[in-house]
Automatic annotation (TrEMBL):
Belongs to the NapD family. Chaperone for NapA, the catalytic subunit of the periplasmic nitrate reductase. It binds directly and specifically to the twin-arginine signal peptide of NapA, preventing premature interaction with the Tat translocase and premature export. Interacts with the cytoplasmic NapA precursor. It is found in: Cytoplasm. HAMAP family: NapD. Its main location: cytoplasm. The gene is napD. This is Chaperone NapD. The lineage of its organism: Bacteria, Bacillati, Actinomycetota, Coriobacteriia, Eggerthellales. Pfam families: NapD (PF03927). Transmembrane segments: none annotated. Keywords: Chaperone, Cytoplasm. It comes from the Bacteria. It comes from Raoultibacter massiliensis.
Amino acid sequence: MVISSLVVDAAPGTEHSITERLFAIEGIEVHSQEENRLVVTIEAETVDASHAIASSFIEIEGVMNINLVYANFEDDPSLRKVQG
């Protein structure tokens, strides 16, 4: 499991609609909003899946920027060394 925390910058007045769209995505939680910034976490199976989810945010109307704050990917099965 990969857990990432991000800050999503929203155009003024779009915060509510962005929050609703984010809640509709599996593995997403919106924790708080301060002015036009939303604090979001992503839970995904792999780093690549987490990146794909975060990258999809830019397609949401009103999203201005996405900033990765923290990522824990030590449990990503795709990064495990092959035992031989």
